[in-house]
Amino acid sequence: MLQIFHQAQKHSTRTAIISNGEHYTYQNVLDESTDFTSVLLGNAFDLAEGRVAFMVESSFEYVKVQWAIWKAGGVAVPLCTTHPLPSLQYVIEDTGAEIIVVSPQFEDILRPLAQEKGIRFIVLGEETKTRTIGLLEISTERRAMILYTSGTTNLPKGVVTTHANLEAQISTLVEAWEYASTDAILCILPLHHVHGIINVISCTLWVGGCVEFLPEFAPQKVFNWFQKMAQLSVSGIFMAVPTIYFKLIAHFESLVVEEQQALSNAMKTFRLMVSGSAALPVSIMEKWQKVSGHTLLERYGMTEIGMALSNPYHGQRRAGFVGVPLPNVLVRLVDEQNKQVEKEQAGEIQVKGPNVFSEYWYRPQATQESFTEDGWFKTGDVAIIEEGSYKILGRSSVDIIKSGGYKISALEIEEVLRTHLAVKDCSVVGIPNEEWGETVAAALITSTTVDLTELNQWMRERMPSYRVPRHYKIVEELPRNAMGKVTKNDLKKLWNS
């Protein structure tokens, strides 16, 4: 039995999930996921690492489906509920998904594709349990999940993690951040990324805590939950990306003094508040400390490795720093010749440990190029160690934009923009922004007059909204080097000119 299910059995009568006003015990999660396992298997004995893509709302149903896939021996491929059809189709086709599972509200989006491709299609609420089954013995070396990351190319790569990888990622954080069965956490993060799947849901359920789902982010609902936890004297945990903290602060500042004081008192009762998925601006960290009494714990991770570095749970947390390596995770900084840098010198972060992913799906060359000969994963992020703590300096490539908790490929956006009839050429960069970390900006060379409102709508139909540029500049030419390549650092200067 996989460890996550063994852990759940220890807490069978405790409340595991609160979703849409309903309370579910750990036994409920175990039983209902087992029932759905029979649906996935049909007459088969084992999915044998068959990929199951699922587009399920942030809810109890999400966990039920995820656990059922693992119990059936399948590989979980969570789909983003806000992505347009072309992005969803890419993931489904790239993974070779054999089954698609959807919440009813997403049926119309994916059923035509499933019918066209001959993929088995299951709508939650319409399934029928086929038979009583015994649980499979699933090796921890089996593939467990494929998540997609843009990386540094214009086509996203599937990051494959095994059950052993996931167990390492979970147990490491449980130890470092002292998760306990008395903890309650609010899930407001998208569930096709490590942050929500591992840090919020899996770690909490590993120890017998309670996850409450809030499908749609709304500042007042978050603050209401803070107050509820304080009134119940529950050990509260909250995790979010910097953009969410920015929005919460803005809402807090709009309230009357009495409401602000009540909320501040409620937040001070919490055990832990964490920020991640993007660099946390110092200004946001300082404002949140005044609002909540908490110095946010900032950490560093990636889809490929889970979490690798963290500020201390106990002890001083330094603004602008991401702390030290987590338990059982090895981290080093190297120069361009792959040699460890001298003390207080900047270098690329490389990571080794049981938390590191196994492969990029069906991309053996990309996998090989991402590791050194002695097995270190090359993150592409540059950092420096000051007074024993790591400070992230940025990507080694300027083609990755970190906005609102997402890592966005500028190259992918450029490729879509260039398909617009009025766009002759373009270049996309990230420009600093307090709310989003970076916002997406595009410089365009056009053949005719462009209606930017129409262009934005056109872009939203072709890619996720967070990748659509928020700023445009029409230019006569793009700054290029002697090789004809666009110099993006010079382009960033153009925005300030």
Question: Features of this protein?
Answer:
25 strands; 497 residues; GMP Synthetase, Chain A, domain 3; Rossmann fold; alpha/beta; single chain; four-stranded parallel β-sheet
**pLDDT < 50 runs, ≥5 residues:** none
Indicate the CATH topology of the domain at 3-138.
Rossmann fold
How much of the sequence is in beta strands? 25-35%
Give the count of helical stretches: 15
Note the quaternary state here. Answer: single chain
| CATH class placement of the domain at 3-138 | Alpha Beta
Alpha-carbon distance between the two ends = 61 Å
Amount of helix? 25-40%
CATH architecture of the domain at 3-138: 3-Layer(aba) Sandwich
Shape summary: globular
Biggest sheet statistics = 9 strands, mixed
Gyration radius, rounded: 23 Å
Strand order of the largest sheet: 2-1-10-9-11-12-13-14-15
Task: Summarize this structure briefly.
33% of the residues lie in helices and 27% in strands.
Q: In words, what does this structure look like?
A:
Among the domains are: 3-138, Rossmann fold, CATH 3.40.50; 400-495, ANL, C-terminal domain (GMP Synthetase, Chain A, domain 3). α8 (219-231) packs across α10 (257-267). The model has no long low-confidence stretch (mean pLDDT 93). It is an alpha/beta fold. The strands form six sheets. The chain has a nine-stranded mixed beta sheet, with helices on both faces. Strands 4-3-5-6 form a four-stranded parallel beta sheet, sandwiched between helices. Strands 16-17-19-20 form a four-stranded antiparallel beta sheet, with no helix packed on it. The chain has 15 helices and 25 strands.
